[in-house]
């Protein structure tokens, strides 16, 4: 009886901690986790491409992605993915491997952000946000800092 009580208390504690953490932070996924999640339950997708040197990206992380309303909307309505646009990692998604072909070049942007967030006849720029429907079709792209109100408006459309 005591072991059962301790086990159930432990499970309850873990569940409450996980749900309260979800309310305090965006539940960011990797592309690998996204692929698995989309197979289980289709849902809209929010992708944030950033770089460590990008001032507006850092400001969004600090001021926008910590807002309670933004967190609630992203966690409830979207699978949220955050990706360093300059990562050196090989990423497998949709049965294909994506790499950073530009690792040793001046602007080492990975294939995934180049494919998903490129502007026609313009260089790739950050921050870059891509919204997709539950069928993984792009619905909107933003290439600018969005404050809390702007992002809430975008996420609510």
Radius of gyration: 18 Å
In spatial order, strands of the major sheet run 1-3-2-6-7
List the total number of helices.
6
Roughly how many Å apart are the termini? 51 Å
Q: Approximately how much beta-strand content do the residues carry?
A: 15-25%
- Helical amount: 40-55%
For the sheet with most strands, the description reads: 5 strands, mixed
- General shape: globular
The secondary structure category is alpha/beta
Order of helices and strands: HEHEHHEEEHEEH
Instruction: Give unreliable regions as ranges.
Output: 1-22
Let me know the number of strands. 7
- Arithmetic mean pLDDT: 87
**What oligomeric assembly is this protein in?**
single chain
Structure write-up:
The protein has helices at 2-24, 31-40, 55-64, 68-77, 111-116, 148-156, and strands at 28-29, 44-50, 78-84, 91-93, 96-98, 128-132, 138-142. The chain has 157 residues and is α/β, with parallel strands linked by helices. The strands form two sheets. It has a five-stranded mixed sheet. It has a two-stranded antiparallel sheet with strand order 4-5. Mean pLDDT is 87; it is low at 1-22.
Summarize the structure.
The protein has 157 residues and is of the alpha/beta class.
């Amino acid at each position: 009886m005591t072991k059962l009580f301790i086990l159930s208390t432990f499970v309850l504690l873990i569940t409450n901690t996980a749900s309260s953490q979800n309310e305090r932070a965006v539940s960011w996924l990797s592309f690998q986790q996204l692929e698995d999640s989309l197979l289980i339950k289709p849902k809209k997708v929010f992708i944030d491409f950033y770089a460590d040197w990008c001032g507006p990206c850092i400001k969004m992380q600090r001021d926008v992605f910590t807002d309670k309303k933004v967190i609630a909307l992203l966690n409830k309505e979207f699978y949220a993915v955050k990706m360093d646009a300059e990562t050196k990692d090989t990423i497998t998604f949709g049965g294909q491997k994506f790499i950073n072909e530009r690792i040793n070049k001046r602007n080492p942007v990975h294939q995934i952000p180049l494919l998903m967030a490129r502007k026609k006849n313009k260089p790739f720029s950050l921050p870059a946000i891509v919204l997709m429907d539950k069928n993984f079709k792009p619905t909107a792209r933003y290439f600018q800092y969005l404050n809390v109100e702007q992002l809430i408006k975008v996420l609510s459309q």
